[in-house]
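Lab meeting, item 3. Inverse folding demo.
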């Protein structure tokens, strides 16, 4: 039997609650994407794009409105193509956190530099996406925790 007080429930929060996430995936609805389902489960508000340049244009137009960019790499040309896309974003001055989800990933990466993308193995699990999300949003969560 588990017992917890109401105070614990009030102080705990869903990791991605209210975070606006741009998801680049080969899907028509967020629920058609494994990453989309996981992000929604973390409380993220998803804007789905299935074209890389459409996603970049939306990110540049509404830079202040998005907290995170997630790319399902496999249908977008693979990990190398997605890393080039991130490099294009950085050249344009877009510095938001990025998570890349790829089946080519042999070892998941959680870099210390905020400009480097987090790389997760596909198919993404709830646990790995939560850890990746927390790592990507660490500056935001530390701000809210203070």
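The presenter then showed the designed sequence:
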């Amino acid at each position: 039997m588990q017992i917890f007080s109401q105070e614990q429930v009030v102080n705990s929060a869903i990791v991605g609650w209210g975070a606006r996430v741009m998801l680049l995936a080969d899907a028509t609805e967020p629920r058609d994407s494994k990453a989309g389902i996981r992000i929604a489960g973390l409380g993220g508000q998803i804007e789905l794009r299935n074209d890389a340049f459409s996603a970049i244009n939306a990110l540049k137009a509404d830079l202040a409105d998005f907290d995170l960019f997630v790319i399902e790499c496999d249908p977008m040309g693979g990990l190398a193509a997605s890393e080039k896309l991130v490099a294009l974003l950085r050249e344009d001055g877009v510095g938001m956190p990025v998570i890349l989800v790829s089946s080519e990933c042999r070892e998941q990466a959680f870099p210390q530099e905020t400009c480097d993308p987090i790389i997760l193995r596909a198919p993404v699990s709830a646990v790995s996406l939560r850890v990746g999300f927390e790592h990507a949003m660490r500056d935001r969560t530390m701000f809210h925790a203070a």
